[in-house]
């Protein structure tokens, strides 16, 4: 508003070029009209005095006032003085002509027009003066001064008001930061005094990005109690995580729960919250699952889940109220839901309806899902819970009904589950059947973060199967106390938990187990360890089992066995992750027993450690084990260790002790489950058999059919053993050292050598096995016998070569022969050369006969298993000699005198002896000789023959000679010790 002092009348001054003169407006004074004065003659104008200007009143007029004075209307301009209106008149010659030297204007009669103008000017001046007087009066008014103050305050408030949007720009991010969602970056798109729009918003955790956030607010409510009227989010991406401890919703999860846990004054309230075009992406931190694709290659499964959602509602200190719509699609299901969520600090209510559900296969609908879910929680206690779901497809149906019934401080829970498949092949790996679970008088106290209670529960199922396991008439009951703090829970049994069923069938990767007798397991309470501990998704079970006994049939594609098991003192500890399905643990047991049709074991104790994805690690100590089949092995004790080597193979370490540890054996190797194949390196340290001490029956009764019962000497064995398809294969080296034995056909002394067994059961060796026998007495005590042989499993001992000595003579087989295990006879053809008759006579029990000379022989024997028959032996002289015979008086009386006289002294030119009979029994001898007595000068040859019956054991001394072990036998003994 212009200053009114420009409207006052001013004395005439020297005009300045270019200066505009102020315009004087007419002012209408709202007072009584002033009578204009009578016209007067014009007075000469006095010259202006610039040094002493006349004081002029000023009008102070506020910009805005409710008490403004009434001003004259601005209708027409006030008359102006000529000097003021026309600055050029000051310099006109006419004006200067009227002036006198003393500065006085000459008097000139005014004209009528001039008088009229002067009168109008005075009248206008009077009106102006009157208005100024009224303005002075207004200035003295208090109300007017108050108005001035108000105007100033308004100006200040207007300045503050204009800066409030900038303050709100800083306030909103701070409020969100205090409520768990600090912004990392955003772009301010628009801001007003009561609204704001942000774009490209992300939080500091990186779990939430928002395309657009629109806020509507009142500044007073925003600054006083952190209240936002409206909040609209669009193009939202929320990243969640699936961990071993559960699910994490990131920044949004913290935001929606913050008003109920924030400090007083900082809790965010949103009266209207809307989320549009939302995407919830759930990623897993767990190890990826792996499958085998159609090409037989291992392939990882992407477990990322994406759910599209929208929501509207409100949140604040009173709680959270949201209506949420979701739309999710996975390779197996497409689901749309409508959810109502009402949450306060003390209660929560959730109701979800599946509005559309399709089960997919190869992107085609193969089934549907419908149902409702409703949950209410008050003060940490479930006050209501209902669920009714139906999943159906062309192959299966799944019905689920659950209900929670509060009863004062307790409530009951009932759950019915029924699953069925039209095609049993589709049920593989899935539980099928009807199951009923009931919990009566369930008590829960506390809040969701910290609660405790008691759960008496029972479960029944007529038949449950998952394609690999089938349980009939399952019944279990338990009464437990539980307490939870955050995600950590503890469950304790108040009484023994029972788990009973009438029959069970289970198919593992390599075995099928069937239990046909009813079985009841009892899990006893443990005072030191609870039944269950949970830390997030990790569950830890402690299962002290009572005594249990059952009969099971275990079978596979190779064999089947009926087994009876009695277990005592069993205590198992199991850890399980509900998200990954991974498990681990161990079970200990003591004084247990196991029996099959082949073996019985008692006093069994041990520990079994197991981990998902691998075979168990087992350690067993068996106090006593015995084979059911007689004469196989004596009772023994054993320490066993089975450790996983691969998905189908176990490593094995075993120590077996017989006769209280006098004889031991160690085995280290592996066991392949699909083929029942054992591969071991076996070591049997040296042990010594004797007639008065450790006998063969006490060590290896199964060797009776191969070895004589009376045997002594040292034995040891080492080598690789393979057990498969009922056969025990080698190679195994057997050390035989200074062994003596008596068989039905021979007495053996100083048996030495190393024999390689290519098969232990049945017994078999490679060819060219060599054994040395110091004395082989079959009636004739042969010495330094060397056998080259092999053992054939289906035939017997095949002797390729036999060499031995007697009376300086060398004996050997003419062709190979076989000593069968049982059955028909075996023919043995032998020859002996260089037999020194003097040595033979030296071994005779009688000294009545003295003979010298060299003979050769041929033998035909028959071996029938328990007998060695001499079909015929023919001895013929190679070199002549002498014979002197001096029988006893008793024998003289029986002999022909002429024969007796001839044989007294004979020079033998030719002699032949034949023998037939049993090598260990009676033998009929026929002797024929040609010679003459030394007394006959002409030397007339006489032929004499006679026969007699006796036995080799009666005729010959049964004693051995000097033992000469061949060098190759000695080398084999030394090499065995070095292995």
The radius of gyration is 63 Å
Structural class by sheet pairing and helices: mainly beta
Proportion of beta-strand residues: over 45%
- The low-pLDDT segments are 1-105
**Biggest sheet layout:** 8 strands, antiparallel, barrel
Q: Which strand order does the major sheet show?
A: 19-20-25-26-28-27-23-22
Tell me the helix content: 10-25%
Instruction: Count helical runs.
Output: 12
Strand segment tally: 51
Mean pLDDT: 81
CA distance, first residue to last residue: 124 Å
What sort of overall outline do the alpha carbons produce when their principal axes are compared? rod-shaped
Describe the structure.
The chain is built from twelve helices and 51 strands. It is mostly beta strands and 979 residues long. Among the domains are: 1-9 and 21-32 and 58-98 and 110-140, no CATH class; 830-969, no CATH class. It has an eight-stranded antiparallel β-barrel. The longest helix is centred in the first third of the chain and has 37 residues, at 142-178. The two termini are 124 Å apart.
Summarize the structure.
With 979 residues, the chain is mostly beta strands. 13% of the residues lie in helices and 53% in strands.
Question: Any key phrases for this structure?
Answer:
979 residues; mainly beta; 8-stranded antiparallel beta barrel; two-stranded antiparallel sheet; 12 helices
Structural topology:
Layout: H1 82-85, H2 93-97, H3 112-139, H4 142-178, E1 183-191, E2 195-203, E3 208-216, H5 219-225, E4 227-243, E5 246-248, H6 250-257, E6 269-284, E7 290-292, E8 298-300, E9 305-316, E10 319-329, E11 333-343, E12 347-361, E13 364-378, E14 381-393, E15 396-407, E16 410-421, E17 433-447, E18 450-465, E19 469-485, E20 488-493, E21 497-501, E22 503-507, E23 512-515, E24 519-523, E25 532-535, E26 538-545, E27 548-555, E28 560-577, E29 583-595, E30 599-611, E31 617-627, E32 636-644, E33 649-658, E34 663-672, E35 677-689, H7 696-699, E36 710-724, E37 727-742, E38 747-761, E39 769-777, E40 781-792, E41 796-806, E42 809-813, E43 817-820, E44 826-836, H8 837-842, E45 849-851, E46 854-863, E47 868-879, E48 881-885, H9 889-894, H10 897-902, E49 905-918, E50 923-932, E51 942-950, H11 952-955, H12 967-978
Parallel strand pairs: 4-6
Antiparallel strand pairs: 1-2, 2-3, 3-4, 4-5, 6-9, 7-8, 9-10, 10-11, 11-12, 12-13, 13-14, 14-15, 15-16, 16-17, 17-18, 18-19, 19-20, 19-21, 19-22, 20-25, 21-24, 22-23, 23-27, 25-26, 26-28, 27-28, 28-29, 29-30, 30-31, 31-32, 32-33, 33-34, 34-35, 35-36, 36-37, 37-38, 38-39, 39-40, 40-41, 41-42, ...
């Amino acid at each position: 508003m212009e200053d009114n002092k420009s409207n006052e009348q001013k004395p005439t001054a020297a005009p300045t070029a270019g200066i505009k003169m102020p315009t004087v407006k007419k002012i209408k004074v709202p007072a009584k009209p002033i009578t204009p004065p009578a016209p007067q003659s014009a007075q000469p104008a006095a010259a202006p005095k610039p040094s002493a200007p006349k004081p002029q009143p000023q009008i102070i007029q506020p910009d805005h006032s409710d008490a403004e004075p009434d001003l004259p209307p601005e209708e027409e301009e006030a008359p102006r003085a000529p000097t003021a209106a026309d600055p050029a008149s000051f310099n006109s010659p006419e004006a200067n002509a009227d002036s006198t030297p003393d500065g006085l204007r000459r008097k000139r009669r005014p004209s009528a027009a001039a008088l009229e103008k002067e009168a109008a000017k005075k009248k206008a001046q009077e009106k102006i003066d009157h208005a100024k007087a009224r303005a002075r009066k207004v200035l003295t008014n208090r109300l007017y001064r108050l108005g001035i103050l108000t105007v100033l305050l308004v100006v200040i408030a207007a300045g503050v008001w204009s800066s409030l949007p900038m303050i709100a720009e800083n306030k909103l991010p701070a409020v969100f930061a205090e409520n768990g969602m600090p912004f990392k970056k955003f772009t301010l798109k628009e801001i007003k005094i009561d609204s704001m729009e942000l774009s490209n918003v992300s939080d500091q955790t990186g779990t939430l990005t928002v395309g657009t956030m629109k806020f509507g607010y009142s500044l007073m409510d925003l600054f006083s109690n952190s209240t936002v009227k409206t909040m609209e989010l669009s193009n939202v991406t929320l990243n969640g995580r699936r961990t071993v401890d559960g699910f994490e919703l990131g920044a949004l999860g913290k935001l929606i729960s913050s008003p109920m846990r924030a400090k007083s004054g900082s809790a965010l309230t949103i009266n209207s919250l809307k989320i549009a075009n939302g995407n919830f992406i759930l990623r897993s931190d767990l190890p990826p699952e792996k499958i085998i694709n159609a090409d037989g290659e291992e392939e990882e499964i992407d477990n990322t889940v994406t759910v599209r959602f929208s929501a509207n509602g409100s949140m604040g200190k009173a709680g959270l109220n949201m209506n949420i719509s979701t739309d999710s699609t996975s390779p197996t299901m497409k689901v749309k839901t409508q959810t109502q969520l009402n949450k306060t600090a003390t209660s929560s209510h959730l109701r979800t309806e599946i509005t559309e559900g399709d089960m997919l296969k190869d992107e085609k609908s193969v089934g549907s899902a419908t149902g409702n879910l409703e949950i209410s929680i008050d003060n940490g206690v479930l006050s209501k819970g209902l669920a009714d779901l139906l999943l159906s497809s062309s192959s299966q149906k799944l019905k689920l009904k659950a209900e929670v019934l509060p009863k004062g401080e307790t409530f009951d829970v009932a759950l019915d589950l029924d699953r069925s498949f039209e095609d049993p092949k589709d049920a593989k790996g899935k539980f099928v059947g009807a199951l009923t679970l009931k919990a009566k008088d369930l008590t829960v106290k506390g809040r969701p973060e910290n609660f405790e209670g008691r759960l008496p529960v029972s479960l029944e199922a007529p038949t449950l199967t998952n394609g690999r396991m089938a349980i009939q008439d399952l019944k279990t009951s338990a009464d437990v106390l539980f307490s939870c703090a955050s995600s950590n829970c503890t469950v304790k049994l108040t009484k023994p938990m029972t788990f009973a069923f009438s029959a069970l069938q289970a198919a593992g990767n390599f075995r099928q187990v069937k239990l046909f007798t009813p079985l009841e397991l009892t899990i006893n309470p443990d005072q030191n360890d609870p039944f269950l501990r949970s830390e997030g998704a990790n569950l830890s079970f402690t299962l002290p089992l009572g005594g249990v006994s059952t009969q099971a049939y275990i079978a596979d594609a190779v064999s089947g066995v009926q087994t009876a098991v009695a277990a005592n003192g069993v205590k198992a500890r199991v850890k399980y992750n509900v998200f990954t399905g991974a498990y681990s643990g161990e079970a200990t047991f003591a004084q247990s027993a196991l029996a099959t049709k082949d073996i019985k074991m008692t006093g069994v104790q041990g520990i079994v450690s197991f981990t998902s994805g691998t075979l168990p690690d087992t350690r067993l100590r068996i106090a006593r084990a015995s084979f059911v089949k007689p004469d196989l092995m004596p009772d023994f004790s054993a320490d066993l260790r089975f450790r996983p080597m691969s998905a189908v193979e176990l490593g094995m370490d075993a120590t077996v002790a017989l006769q209280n540890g006098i004889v031991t054996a160690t085995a280290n190797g592996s066991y392949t489950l699909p083929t029942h194949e054992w591969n071991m390196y076996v070591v049997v340290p040296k042990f010594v058999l004797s007639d008065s001490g450790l006998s063969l029956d006490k060590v290896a009764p199964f060797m009776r059919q191969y070895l004589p019962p009376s045997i002594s000497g040292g034995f040891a064995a080492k080598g690789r053993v393979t057990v498969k398809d009922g056969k025990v294969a080698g190679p195994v080296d057997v050390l035989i050292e200074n062994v003596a034995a008596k068989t039905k056909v021979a007495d053996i002394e100083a048996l030495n050598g190393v024999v390689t067994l290519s098969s232990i059961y049945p017994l078999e060796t490679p060819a060219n096995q060599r054994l040395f026998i110091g004395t082989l007495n079959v009636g004739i005590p042969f010495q330094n016998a060397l056998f080259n042989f092999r053992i054939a499993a289906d035939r017997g001992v095949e002797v390729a070569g036999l060499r031995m000595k007697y009376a300086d003579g060398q004996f050997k087989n003419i062709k190979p022969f076989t000593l069968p295990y049982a059955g028909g006879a075996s023919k043995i053809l032998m020859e002996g050369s260089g037999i020194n008759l003097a040595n033979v006579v030296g071994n005779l029990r009688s000294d009545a006969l003295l003979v010298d000379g060299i003979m050769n022989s041929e033998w035909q024997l028959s071996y029938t298993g328990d007998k060695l028959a001499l079909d015929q032996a023919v001895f013929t002289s190679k070199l002549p000699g002498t014979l002197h015979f001096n029988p006893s008086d008793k024998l003289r009386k029986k002999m022909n005198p002429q024969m007796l006289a001839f044989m007294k002294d004979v020079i033998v030119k030719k002699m032949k002896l034949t023998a037939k009979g049993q090598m260990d029994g009676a033998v009929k001898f026929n002797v024929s000789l040609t010679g003459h007595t030394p007394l006959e000068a002409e030397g007339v040859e006489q032929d004499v023959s006679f026969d007699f019956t006796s036995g080799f054991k009666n005729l010959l001394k049964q004693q051995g000679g000097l033992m000469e072990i061949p060098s190759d036998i000695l080398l084999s003994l030394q090499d065995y010790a070095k292995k």
